[in-house]
Amino acid sequence: MPIDTGDTTWMLISTGLVMMMTPALGFFEAGLIRAKNSLSVIMQTFSGLAILSILWFVIGFTLVFAPSQGGFIGGLDWLFFNNVPFNDSLDYAPTIPGVTFASYQMMFAVITPLLITGAFAERMKWSSFFVFIIAWSILVYYPLAHWIWGRGWLADMGVFDFAGGIVIHTSAGLGSLAAALVLGRRKNFGPDIMVPHNIPLAVIGATLLWIGWFGFNAGSVLASGALAANTLLVTHIGSATSAMVWILLSWKRSGKPSTTAVINGAIAGLAGVTPAAGFISAQNSFILGIALGLASYYAILLLKEHWKIDDALDVSSVHGVTGIVGSLAIGLVASTLINPAGPDGLLYGNPMQLAIQALGVAVAAALGFGGTVVIMKVINATIGLKVREEEEDIGLDVTQHAERAYVS
SUPFAM superfamilies from the entry (predicted)? Predict the structure, then answer.
């Protein structure tokens, strides 16, 4: 099939939108934590964009998408993007250049480990962060992405994940839970330190994430056209519905509708609709958005308020729980009427798909959680994970980077 100029243009735009999401994540997180640590998370996300882009260029793409070695990892055919065609396509995306597909997938590989920064915000050394994101990419993300998107063993079993609910949000969400448990709580953990210092900055980050997510999900069609248009609508409705649920729940709980709640609700909806976005109708996305809003909101109450787990920015709930719910939703409401290349779910005559999706979720959760524990334990035993208590008091901006976000 020849290269399609329209499809290529659409994918270049989508790649730019998804790239924007990484610094947007930094703005979102920075606004929601204390001022003395705000630069530290921006530094993590922005430097992570550089580090993980190079890692993908050198070895990541080939390990994920090169011809499979027994269904478990890709070969070394495309190290440094060697032999990836720029004037011809790969069979993963037959109407766009191979380098366009590889560059687009780079953005997914970049943002996934960086989601975990929200869990260990305000207490992890940058040097440990540097080692962690490289190790996590190689040991967790690349194998899992190959198993599902690189035509590995989970794909062979029929597991579907349109744009990352299993590969990205389940793995990073459970990795965040593990990171919070291994690192332990911040000093004086409680309401006094969980006060956002700049909500407008967080809203800017959330806005850019919402816009970028259209490239994340609709771009995953890998072509322009009707399916991309439906995917964009499904993404927006799922996010808007989840945001509305959070508005109502925060209003009921505190008597005032919360800005922080609406942006968290929107992100929860975006994360949760991601795996199913290319397989479901907008009507089912509306129902899914309600479920995502409820699940993520009450998961935070359980994990942070009841169990006292210090996942600083609730990544395990906003991404992990929603990624699981959205991935299982494929097994319920996916329809080949929407996407003939996808599955039918339980409500469309295929009850086995729910069990298959549950297997994929379980594998991603185990790898994300277990892999994170092992990586962090090794780092802690060698160079150490957590800043000293006095450094935590001063703030990571000064102690890790010798900079201040705000100078009076």
Answer: Ammonium transporter (SSF111352)
Domains contained in the chain, number? 1
pLDDT tens figures, 274-305: 999 999 999 999 999 999 999 999 999 999 99
Q: Which two tokens stand for residue 183?
A: 């690192």
Tell me how far apart the alpha carbons of residues 39 and 44 are, in angstroms, rounded to a whole number.
8
343, 278 in Cβ contact below 8 A?
no
Q: Are 348 and 336 in contact (CB under 8 A)?
A: yes
Written as six digits, the tokens of 363 are 């594998």
| Full domain range(s) for residue 341 | 5-401
173-212 confidence digits (pLDDT tens): 999 999 999 999 999 999 888 899 999 999 999 999 999 9
Q: Write the CA distances from 40 to 105, 176, 243, 357, integer angstroms.
A: 26, 17, 28, 37
Residue 405 has pLDDT above 80, yes or no: yes
Q: What CATH number is attached to the domain comprising 42? A: 1.10.3430.10
- The answer to whether 114 and 98 are in contact (CB under 8 A) is no
CA dist 185 and 345 (Å) reads 41
158 within 8 A of 151, measured Cβ to Cβ: no
pLDDT for 2 equals 85
User: Cα–chain-centroid distance for residue 372?
Assistant: 15
Report residue 91 CA to chain centroid gap.
25
| Residue 406: inside a domain | no
